[in-house]
Amino acid sequence: MIRRTQQGLLAEGVAVSIAKLCMWFGILRRTVYYKPVKAAPKVDPRFAEPIKKMIEEEPSFCYWTMAWLLGFNKNAV
Prior knowledge:
Blueprint lengths: L1 H10 L6 H8 L3 H5 L11 H13 L5 H8 L7
């Protein structure tokens, strides 16, 4: 939002710094620069294959049921 506002103002010929825009809108400057970092999901093949097979056979099972039938922790499913 801040960067879009800054670009819009710049297109109109008004140069305003990010710090000043943040002060006007009452937000912290670090929120403008923040980029979320999310780790890629880790798929363990020894869990993935039996789970996929069971989903194809019985798509109505919930993950708790699949975990119990396969002997896995429900968080692994």
